[in-house]
Amino acid sequence: MSQGIEHKTGTFRKWANLNVLGLVLLAAAFGVSAWRAVLNHEQITERPDSGDRKIIRICHWQLEPGYRNAIQAVIDQYEKLRPDVHVIQIPIGEKVYVQWLNTHMIAGTAPDVSEMGMGQLAADDQYVSRFYLPLTDKVDSPNLYNQGTDLEGVPWRDTFVDGMRRGYLDTLQDYYGAPTCVHTIRMFYNKEMLKRATGSDVPPRTLGGLFTACQALRDLGERTGERITPIAGNRDCLDLFLSRYAAPFTAGYEKDLDLDLDGKMTLNETYIGFCRGRLSLRDPAMRAYYECIQAISEQFAQGFLGMGREMSVYSFVMGHSGMMATGSWDAMSLFTQARFDVGVMDFPLPGPGERWHEQLVGRRNEAVMAGGAQYGICKYSAHPDVALDFLKYMTSQKGNELLTTKAGLIPITIGADLPERMRPFMPDPVGYVSKIDLRYGNYMQMRYNGELERYMSGQSMNYDQFVQNVESALLDPSGGDRGWAIEYDTKVRWARNQERALATQSIRELMDPAARDAHDKYIRQMLQQVRANNGQDLRYRFEQVRKKMIPEI
Amino acid sequence: MAAGIIAILSGLALGEGLSPQETLAKAVQEVSCLSFKTAYPLFDDVLKKAAEGSDLWQKAVFGKALCAQQTAPATPEAIQEAQGLYKALIEKAPDSPMTPRAMMNLGRIAELSDYYQDVVDLAGARQWYEKVRDRYADKPIAGEAVLRIAGTYIQTFKKDEVAQGIELLRRWLAAHPDDPLASGMWQYLGDTYFFPLEEYDKCLECYLKVDKLGLVEKGLEGPFYWRVAMVADRYVKDRDVAVGFYAKVIRLASSSGKGYEAQLAMKRLGAKESEIPPLGGILSGSGKGHTPVSTTRAAPTEAK
Q1: How far is A174 from chain B (nearest CA, A)?
Q2: Global pTM?
Q3: What DSSP string runs through A11-31?
C-alpha cells in the first residue's frame, strides 16, 4: 500500500515539475491567444450580415484613453438612428496598424471605414486611389444629419472647419477622407504643485513669469527634497517650443523675404534673403529667438534630448515635473492619468520690460488648421453607402460633438460644442504665421539639427559659435546651394510626375463616359503645371542670385 | 500544376476570358489608379484583337502609347514606342477624338525630360502644340495648345521669349475672351508680369480679370487674394483694390492664417476693419456658450 502511494507520489513528482508547469501555461496561453485570434478574425470578417442588420466595421489606431469609448458612443447613437445597421469598432495598436491594414486591404477584407494617413496603402496616392472610395461627388451635398441645425442644407464639405482640405488629395484631385477633429498645442501644468511653489495656481502670463515659476518649482524641490523638474522636456518637446516661438520672433522678416508675396517665407526665399544680406543669425530677432528657446530648454531635465515622449508624460503625471508641452491629442491622457488637477495655458511670450520683448513681432496664430483622425471608405466595402452614412453621422454637428466631447478632442464640425475642459485649446486666429526655417536640403537639415542640439543642450557651444557653424554650413557647397539644386530637381520631377496624373484624367475623359469630373480635374492640374514653368523659375533665380549655373545633383 | 495556376492567374491579369470592351474598361480602371504598368498589357491585348482603324483600335493604341509614356521609370525605348504609337494613330485615324490628345502628348514628350539625359526640345514641342492649335482651332483643346505654346516661351525666362509668350496669350484672349481657360491664362499672364518681368500694374490688371472670371484652383484663394492685395498695396499703390482684397482675405480665406495681418493692413490704410470670421464657428460663440474672440486686440498674446 505504502509502496503504491510512494509510486503514485513518485509519478506525480515526476510530472509535477516546473518544466511541465511551464508547458501547461504555454499551452493555455496559446489556447487563449488562438481563441482570441479566432474571435477577432470573426469580428473582422464576419459576413454575411446578421439577420436584417447590415454590418460595417471601422478601424483606427487611436488607443488613447477615452477615444474607443467615444467611438463606441457614436456607434451606439448611430445604431439607434439606424437600427438596420451594426457598426463594429476595431482598434489596432499604432505599431501594427500599417501591416494589419495593408494585409486586409490586399486580401479584400479591409474594414469598411479606416483611419487614413499611416502606411503606404492609406497614404500614397497610387494606393489610395486603388483602395479608397473617392468622396468628391458626395461632398457637395448636404449632410442630412445636420437637419435642424444651422448647417442644414450646407454642403458637407463646408461643414468642416478646414473646408475638408485635409481630405483632398491634390494629385488625384479628389476628396478621399473626412477628418474628425483638429489639434492645437498647449502647455499643461500641475495646479497643486504650482500653488505650492508660487502660492497661486494661476499660470504665468508672460515668459518672465514662466521663468519665475520654474525657479519657484526648483526651490520647492530643494525645500522638500522632492525630485522636481520645472518642465518635462524631450526632443519632440523642444521642437514644439521652437515651432511655437518661431513666428512671434521671425514673422517680421516676411516683408523682406517673401518674394512671391504668398504670405509665407519658403526655405528658398529664406536662403535668398541670407545670401542678399537681409537675414543673419546675428540679427537681434534671430538671436532673441534662439536664446529664448535655449533659456526655456534649461528648464528641462538634464539629458532631455535623449528622452522620449513617454518619459515626459510619465514624469509629468507622476508629479515629477511642474509643466509639459504637448498637443490636444494628449489632453485626455493627462487629465485622466494625473492624480492632480491639470491646468492648460498658452505659451507665454515676453511681456513689456522683459528680456526679448523688444524683438517680438506678435503671437502666433492658429488659423492654419488641418484636420486630424481622418477616415476613408474602403473601395471594396460591401456597404459603401452605409459606411458613408456613418461617416456623415460622425462628422455631423451632433455626432462630432459627441465624439470629441467623449474623447477630449477639438471638434472639426462647425458649430459643434467644445467640451468645457477643451476650451483652452480653442484655435486662435489672431497673430502671425510666417517663420524662418534654415533647413534647406538634407545636408543643412543634418548640420542645423546637430548644431541646434549642441547649442540647446548647453554643452560646449555659445550662441556665437552656433551662428558661425550654421552660417558656414549654409555657405558650404553642400549647404544652401545644394538645397536649392535639390529643390529645383524636385520641382522638375514634380512637373514630369504631374504628367501621369494628367494622363489618367485624359484617358478617363476620352474612354470612360461616367467620368464626368475628368475634364475639370484635367484643367486644374494642367494649369498648376503650366504655371510652375517646369521648375525653371528656380533655375533662373539661382543664376540671378548666385551668379553661376545651378549645380547638378 | 503550379505552372497551370500561374498561367491561369496571368491570363486573368491579362484580361483573358474578357471581351475586348471589358478588357479595355479594365485597362482604363487600372490607369485611373495610376497603374500604367498593369494597364499596358491590357491595352496591348485589345490592340491585337481590334481591327485597324476601328474605334476599339484607336482607344487601344492611344491607351498603349500613354502607358508606354507614363510607366515609371521611363526609358528611351518606351518613349520611342509611345511616339511611334501616337504617330500611327495620327496617321491612320486623323479624325479620331484621341488624335489631338496624341499630338499634345508628343509635344509633352518633347517638352519634358522623361529619362536621364533626355534633352528638352521646346521648339519641337511648340511645333506639335501649334499643329493642334491650327488644326483644331474651333475646339476647346486649341486654348490648351496656346497655353502650352506660351509656356514654352515663358519658361526660358529670356526677355524676348517671355514677351513672345505674353503677346501670344494676349492675342488669344482678345480673340477668345470666353475661352474656358481664360481665367487660367490671365493668371499665368499675371504671374509672368509679377516675375520675372516685375511689371506690377499689368500684373494687377491680369489678376483682377482672374478674380472677375473666378479662380480655377478652388481652395487656394488665400495666397491669391493676399498677393493681389500686396501688389496693389506695395507696388501699384491702389488703396481701394488693396483694401478690397485684404477684406477678401479676412472674409473668404480666414483659414489662410493672414486674416489678422490683413486687419492690420486695413487699419494702416484707414479702412474700416473687417472682423475675422470665427474659425468655423468653434470660436463663434454660436449660441453654445463660447466666448467670442476679440479680433481687434493687440497682436502679442496676453503679454502685451
Answers
A1: 12
A2: 0.85
A3: HHHHHSSHHHHHHHHHHHHHH
